[in-house]
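Hey, sorry to bother you again with one of my protein questions. A protein chain has come my way and I'm curious about its shape. It would help a lot if you went through both lines with me. I owe you a coffee for this, so here goes:
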Amino acid sequence: MPGFCTSCGAPLSGPFCGKCGQRAQAPASPAQSQPVAAAQPAPAVVPSQPATAAPAPAQSQPTAATPQPTPVQSQPAAVAPSQTSGVVAKKSGAGKALLIIGGIILLLGVMAFAAVLYGVHWVKGKVSSLTGGAVGGSQVQVSQGNACALLSRAELQQVLGVAVERNSEIMEGNDPGCAYYTNPAAFSELQKIAVEQARRDSEKASKDPALNNSKNDNPLALLGHTEEMEGIVKGLGLTQPDPEGKVFAFTVDRNFGGENWGPLRATMAAVPGFKDVDGVGDHAMIGSFGHAFFVLKGNSMFRLETMYVPETRVRGAEIGRRIVSHL
């Protein structure tokens, strides 16, 4: 009996479909069509999906699980260099600031020492010219003399607050005097006193409108305020004390003449920092940065070397009083 084409459903009249050309099949094609229909999805869809889908999750899980710690570990590695570079940058900036400040302090120190050396040399020259060359030579130790009797080691030790181990008679030109010596530990103590003096003077200067005036930005203008800079200069100077340990010395010109004090004071006024000090002898004055202290008593003029004596206005004045009290 005629059947139908299993491909297009057209009626069959021969061994081939007259519509689509498909070969005619037996009447049992409905039963065979079920396995064919079942077989088509099996090889084409069902086997391929499990084979592809099964390994994918298995591979994706470890792959997803493995990189998770990696970003967490990589973050500190990325942050740490930036933080370190920030710290390095800050340290570098602070280091540059300290170098600038240190350079300014060094410049002021050099200027201060230059002014002191100029003052010492200039004052000696003027004193020598006024006294006919009696003062201004180099100091030498001598075996005999009585200048040290004017100031005992115990008295100087009490004023300075450090040990004075020995003293010796000296001569500077034609002027007798006495030199006093100490040890490295004592110089360290004097340096601490000078640094403390510098701190106090700095606080005082910060409240002084004259020192904070913008016109004083020129470092040379600071030479007009040598008293406020004495602690800085003495602190720097005490880093390299006298190699022989000389901490203080004085000389006396017994024939200076009281009438010569006025011209000497007027001449010294050309060097910044010389100021009068009351209450010591007949007249007294302090040198720039406290490097020297001068006292007139009658016709005798005393020159005190106070380069290593901090707070010269107070300590130098007390030493001067003790010396003239023994005349």
About this structure: The chain has eleven helices and eight strands.
